[in-house]
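Async update (no meeting this week)

Hi team, since we skipped the sync, here's where things stand on the single-chain job. The sequence we agreed to prioritize is pasted below, unchanged from the tracker. I ran it this morning and attached the output directly underneath so nobody has to dig for it. Comments welcome in thread, and please keep replies under the output.
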Amino acid sequence: MKLALLMGVIVTFIVSCFTSGYDAKPGVPKKDQ
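Output:
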C-alpha cells in the first residue's frame, strides 16, 4: 500500500513538472506563483 501511494505521488510530481514546463518557458516566472 505504501509503495502504491509513493508511486502515485512520484507520478503526480513528474506530470506537474512536465505540464509546468509546457505551460511556461524555463526561466520565466509563472503568473500564478
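Quick observations from my side:
The chain has a mean pLDDT of 76.
The chain is about 65% helix and 0% strand.
Reply here if anything looks off.
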